[in-house]
Amino acid sequence: MAHKFFQEREDQSEVKARIVQKYFYAWANVILPSCILHDSKLAYIDMFAGPGRYKDGSASTPLLVLKHAIEDNRLCDRLVVLLNDKDENHSKTLEEEIAKLDGINKLKTRPRISCGEVDADLAALFEKISLVPTFTFFDPFGYKGLSLKVVNSVIKDWGCDCVFFFNYNRINAAVTNPFVEQHMEALFGKERLERLQHDVAGKTPHQRQNLILEQLSRAIKDMGGKFVLPFTFKNEAGTRTTHSLIFVTKHFKGYEIMKSIMAKESSTNDQGVYTFEYSPADANTPLLFSLSRPLDYLETGLLATYKGETLTMREIYEHHSVDTPYIDKNYKTVLLKLEAEGKISADPTNRRKNTFADRVKVTFPEE
């Protein structure tokens, strides 16, 4: 079955690859100045790297990341790439594909390719060592190898972020399957899994999805991942979630960057608020009107949350936006509307029309 995954690159795979690539580029640009200042390395790790190309010839994520690195002299000097796959044929083919890349010799550190299982031993190894700033990508075919410990082990150090592809269909079936309980405990924790097993009983598919993703996000946060951001993928009909891409970081800057990237890859938006999901059905027939008017909820929420307070736009965004679908543009839109309606006051008032800079101070009324 794992080989079939690489037969053809589908729409969902392209979206997933774009999200990972875009974040790697943005993350590297943020991290590089510090690496140059301290004369240190930065790293990209992919623990389920695959053979490098799909059967149709399109490059998978590791090759795309390397191509970008080759084009940036700063990355050529400092990037360390560690790629792994448990399939020996995949690892061998990946090594051959990397060798074919134009300019691969520009990299001062040759990509290291290994063949092995992602397991508790690997998590223990990462836990013991201090990582240079590292962006890690986990893309398993199912769920074996994914655990809270391995995720926490690769984000524990400064500048370290992680993305993993979460096969929702298989996890959904496995949550209540006693034969794979060991793997589910590694992913959710024993007590949380027991609660989840109880809570999903009798729930609708949509309710199960929300419960599973919520508990996974909470489990990651309890382990030290301060910011967790899921992006979901729907089936062809747009009726069921099939996969989720889960981003984990300890820094708001990384959260903000990934949120912007995921928002733009969403197939639909409502009042400019993005769904953070990709549905082939919605991508082909996008919504033409708002259904739930989420900006209205943001407006009332801000007025209720910050009664009598004065904060800058940036402070509001950093405090309020976590675990919501809202991006900075949504906040500026709502604050401009509230100011025009006299429901808040903003300083300075003499600004360019229809602008609301991060430093603008907002005062909310007591009532």
Task: Compose a concise summary of this entry.
The chain has 16 helices and 13 strands. It is α/β, with parallel strands linked by helices and 367 residues long.
Provide structural commentary:
With 367 residues, this protein is of the alpha/beta class. The protein has 2 domains: 2-284, Vaccinia Virus protein VP39 (Rossmann fold, 3-Layer(aba) Sandwich), CATH 3.40.50; 294-363, Arc Repressor Mutant, subunit A (Orthogonal Bundle), CATH 1.10.10. Helices cover 47% and strands 16% of the residues. The protein has helices at 2-5, 11-37, 61-70, 73-78, 88-100, 120-128, 148-155, 168-174, 181-188, 190-199, 205-223, 252-265, 280-284, 294-305, 313-320, 328-340; strands spanning 42-46, 79-84, 112-114, 134-138, 161-166, 227-234, 241-249, 269-270, 273-274, 277-278, 310-312, 345-347, 361-363. The strands form 3 sheets. An 8-stranded mixed β-sheet has the order 3-2-1-4-5-7-6-10, with helices on both faces. Strands 11-13-12 form a 3-stranded antiparallel β-sheet. A two-stranded antiparallel ribbon has the order 8-9. The protein is globular and about 65 Å long. The model is unreliable at 1-9 and 286-290 (pLDDT under 50).
